[in-house]
């Protein structure tokens, strides 16, 4: 069907509406804006985009197909979210997370906690190639350790995500690390080698910031209260290194390229088994009636997988620490992703995203401006399409020929896609990555955003290299 192409003004009206309404939401609701008001704004913004597109001649069926297609692309992420909720519950009652917190307190001092957390997450994410797995396993434990040491939630999450996204960029096992060279027209290891020129300086700068921050902003006196926390955990749970077996298995499965969904499912099964073997008293405590029989075991396990669990201890802070919300806690995030996909589908099928992208391309004059435009487009698609993969695929397809016309090797494009698309997805509250990590770590996106130093530095580093003409490979 023929339809009128949107003007630039028409294309940005839904985005302006979205930004203004989200700003009002944050002002009024604060951190509670993710409980529902942001979802409504995304749906209303999608409705506004649909109305404009409809008056341009786009049929409702076409718009609906775009929304459904976007939602379908997010289904694997939604399944992973539900499984991570169940994983958190099973690993809590099995003593896996409490053991990680207990041993973490013994090993990590407050001064170097932020630096050590980032390095640990770098290692895990390089091994697994997944920021999502890193966040859902060692990330949850580090959040608990950091809280017991008195470190700010935003700082802890920032250190975890900075390390997690280093591996998400650099590991050959990462899906985005394979996707970026594929859409750019280069090879995987050429891409990684060229990506290291901007990524290594970014992570070094990030680690220095965390090292200095640890000495400036973390109170050494908090170590005393952390010892009380570890004793309270040991009173309640059976603590042993053997409880590290399930997370080790999950990380090994991801390393062996087993898909995330079966790997997480296996991790949940191991968590339940270890809970029954080592922490039966905890299962009885959270069950429906507390009696020591198979019905209590069944109900306690089920509640840990789907519902809110709070394990009572003699220390109020530890009680707050030992909580999980299971699959139920992920529902608002799933709602957010659904709403974001509706908005992204309407914007794409209405022709608004391509119009804005073409307008940006017309302003490109130099290598520096081309890389800046690419980086800006990646961030733009992370905001509007609400998906990390689309922020790599769409700009990659848009700019690939343009880079060739300018005599630039495809490695320049693939590097920019990773430096800007992969890492900034976690900074957008309604993006699938931002919504996921916020739910898993229990910290709102706007709270951890200022402390994700690696994610913030990376786009600026790639633009700086372009303007200074450092490591700009030509055909």
Q: What does the model show?
A:
By secondary structure, this protein is mostly helical. It has two domains: 8-75 and 335-467, no CATH class; 76-329, no CATH class. It is built from 23 helices and two strands. The chain has helices at residues 8-29, 37-55, 60-93, 96-107, 113-128, 131-148, 153-170, 175-184, 188-217, 222-236, 245-255, 260-278, 280-286, 294-306, 316-321, 331-349, 352-361, 367-384, 388-405, 410-424, 432-441, 445-448, 453-467; strands spanning 309-310, 323-324. Strands 1-2 form a two-stranded antiparallel ribbon. Helix 5 (113-128) runs antiparallel to helix 6, helix 6 runs antiparallel to helix 7 (153-170) and helix 6 packs parallel to helix 21. The longest helix has 34 residues, at 60-93. The chain is globular and about 70 Å long.
Structural class category: mainly alpha
Give the number of domains: 2
Q: In angstroms, what is the radius of gyration?
A: 23 Å
Our count of helices gives 23
Question: Could you spell the SSE succession in H and E letters?
Answer: HHHHHHHHHHHHHHEHEHHHHHHHH
| Proportion of residues in helical segments | over 70%
Shape field? globular
Strand order of the largest sheet: 1-2
| Most strands sheet | 2 strands, antiparallel
Short summary:
The protein has 475 residues and is mainly alpha-helical. It has helices at residues 8-29, 37-55, 60-93, 96-107, 113-128, 131-148, 153-170, 175-184, 188-217, 222-236, 245-255, 260-278, 280-286, 294-306, 316-321, 331-349, 352-361, 367-384, 388-405, 410-424, 432-441, 445-448, 453-467; strands spanning 309-310, 323-324. The protein is globular and about 70 Å long.
């Amino acid at each position: 069907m023929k339809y009128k192409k949107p003007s630039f003004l028409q294309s940005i009206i839904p985005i302006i509406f979205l930004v203004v309404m989200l700003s009002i939401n944050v002002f009024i609701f604060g951190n509670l804006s993710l409980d529902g008001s942001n979802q409504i704004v995304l749906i209303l913004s999608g409705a506004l985009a649909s109305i404009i597109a409809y008056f341009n001649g786009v049929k409702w069926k076409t718009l609906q197909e775009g929304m459904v297609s976007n939602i379908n692309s997010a289904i694997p992420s939604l399944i992973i979210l539900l499984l991570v909720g169940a994983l958190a519950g099973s690993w809590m009652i099995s003593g896996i997370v409490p053991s990680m917190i207990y041993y973490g307190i013994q090993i990590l001092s407050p001064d170097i906690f932020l630096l050590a957390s980032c390095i640990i997450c770098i290692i895990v994410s390089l091994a697994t190639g997944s920021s999502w797995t890193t966040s859902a396993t060692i990330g949850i434990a580090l959040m608990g350790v950091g809280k017991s040491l008195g470190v700010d939630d935003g700082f802890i999450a920032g250190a975890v995500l900075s390390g997690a996204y280093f591996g998400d960029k650099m590991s050959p096992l990462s899906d985005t690390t394979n996707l970026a060279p594929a859409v750019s027209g280069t090879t995987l290891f050429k891409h990684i080698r060229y990506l290291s020129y901007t990524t290594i300086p970014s992570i070094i700068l990030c680690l220095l910031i965390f090292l200095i921050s640890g000495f400036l902003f973390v109170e050494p006196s908090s170590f005393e209260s952390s010892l009380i926390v570890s004793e309270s955990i040991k009173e309640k749970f059976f603590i042993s290194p053997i409880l590290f077996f399930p997370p080790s298995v999950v990380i090994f499965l991801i390393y062996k390229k087993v898909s995330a969904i079966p790997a997480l499912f296996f991790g949940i099964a191991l968590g339940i088994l270890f809970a029954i073997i080592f922490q039966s008293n905890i299962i009885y405590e959270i069950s429906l009636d507390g009696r020591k029989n198979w019905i209590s075991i069944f109900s306690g396990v089920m509640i840990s997988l789907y519902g809110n669990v709070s394990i009572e201890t003699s220390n109020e802070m530890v009680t707050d620490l030992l909580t999980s919300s299971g699959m139920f806690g992920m529902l608002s995030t799933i709602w957010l992703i659904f709403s974001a996909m509706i908005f992204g589908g309407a914007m794409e099928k209405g022709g608004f995203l391509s119009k804005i992208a073409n307008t940006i391309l017309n302003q490109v004059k130099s290598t520096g401006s081309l890389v800046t435009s690419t980086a800006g487009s990646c961030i733009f698609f992370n905001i509007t399409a609400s998906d990390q993969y689309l922020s790599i695929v769409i700009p990659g397809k848009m700019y690939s020929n343009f880079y060739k016309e300018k005599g630039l090797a495809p490695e320049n494009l693939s590097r920019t896609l990773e430096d800007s698309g992969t890492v900034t997805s976690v900074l957008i509250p309604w993006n699938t990555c931002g919504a996921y990590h916020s739910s898993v770590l229990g910290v709102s996106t706007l709270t951890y955003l200022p402390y994700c130093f690696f994610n913030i530095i990376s786009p600026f580093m790639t633009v700086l290299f372009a303007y200074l003409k450092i490591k700009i490979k030509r055909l």
